[in-house]
Amino acid sequence: MLLNETRYNRLNTLLDYRQANLTVVLENIHDPQNISAVMRTADAVGIHEIFVINTTEATYKVWGKKSSASAYKWVKVHLFKTVAEAMQVVTQNYPTIYGTALHQQSESLYTTNLTLPTAITFGNEHSGLSPEIQTYCNGFITIPMVGMVQSLNISVACSVCLYEAFRQKQLAGHYQTPQLPNQLREAYLTDWSLNKKERFRISK
Known about the structure:
Layout: H1 5-17, E1 22-27, H2 32-44, E2 49-53, H3 65-74, E3 76-80, H4 83-93, E4 96-100, E5 106-108, E6 118-122, H5 131-134, E7 139-142, H6 154-171, H7 182-193, E8 200-202
Parallel strand pairs: 1-2, 1-6, 2-3, 3-8, 4-6, 4-7, 5-7
């Protein structure tokens, strides 16, 4: 499919804002709607890929596509069946791994430097991050709260973290200069030009 000039320029502008050094890792998220909501936020702040680990099922076959159909076109999703397989890939491009968990070494989200190549991990709605994935974390972050409730919905917590990263990266000038490598940028432009809707990459 040939793009008209307006569409081509729009896609290039979108790629100018895509960030090569920030991603999200989701481990055993139970509610597909939460994953869909994370995808929308990821797209909104310029994340080009996320990683989803599901150690209990082969894949998520239904992710509430009606509520996040647009995000499926623009955010690549890497699916994995084990933590080890996922983190082997994640650590290649995102050497700083933060876990979102109450931990003795946890620090406030707002004192954490999120401008470095970083992956932020989020765990199951009920049990949180598994001990296995925590071994890959370089540090742990928490969202300060002063109310009676000491936890947020996974998609809300992810939005808070990603927009703090967005704020820091804006101040650091990361959105003023294109961040994606040219080869990756061209690959996305080709996929989007062909209007490929499925953005899944499943680990074998």
